[in-house]
Amino acid sequence: MNQKIIDYKNVYYPPGGILIWIIILLELVTFGIALIVMVYESKAEPDQFHESRLSLNVTCGMINTVFLLTSGFFMALSVKEVNMKGKHGLKKYLPVTILFGSFFLLLKSWEYYEKIEAGLSMGHNTFFNYYWMLTLFHVIHVIVGLVILISVYLGLRKESTTIEDIEASAAFWHMCDLIWLLLFPVLYLLF
Asked: What is the pTM of this model?
């Protein structure tokens, strides 16, 4: 197997390439600004934000946090295996990464169903406008991340997956974890 030697000490080559890190930075800034604006707007309606937050299922949020962190752990193991044993080591942990990411989506879907059934949809109040906007935007990122991970996994069979592909997919997936770690406490615990 021909693997490129990557100079990790070169500041111009972060793992996965500079483009994925520009995307990650932009995404984190976008979510960060939205969270700051949400917290600012909550000062105008603190009772509404507190009452609305109490209607969220904190247990679902915690379980989803565990799902994403577990998925991120197996993604890190996948990258470690690739660095130690080559691409064949990826086959061991990447499916588990995908599985826990899918568990996140299933539980989030159930939580969305509960909210819709209770009449807590977009437009219900300011808090739920932010809840839906932020969590749906995050869910879209998780779906995109899973599509990327599945394509990396399928690329292993065709020998078309590169180390850069694996690193970029890992960086994107860890961004999804990080965004959730910002969203969960602000939405489910703060108000």
From this structure: 0.87
| Whole-number Å distance between alpha carbons of 7 and 34 | 36
Q: Where are the alpha helices (DSSP H) in 43-89?
A: 46-54, 58-85
Structure tokens at 66: 């565990």
Residue type, 7: D
Q: Coil, helix or strand for 56?
A: coil
Q: Is 25 exposed, middle or buried (0-12, 13-18, 19+ CB in 10 A)?
A: exposed
| pLDDT per residue of the chain (191 residues) written in tens, 0 to 9 | 445 555 555 555 666 678 888 899 999 999 999 999 999 999 999 999 999 999 999 999 999 999 999 999 999 999 888 878 776 777 889 999 999 999 999 999 999 999 999 999 999 999 999 999 999 999 999 999 999 999 999 888 777 777 788 888 999 999 999 999 999 999 999 87
Rounded Cα distance between 115 and 24, Å, is 29
Nearest residue to 76 (alpha-carbon basis) of 160, 184, 157, 167: 167
Half-sphere exposure of 38 (CA within 13 A, CB side): 26
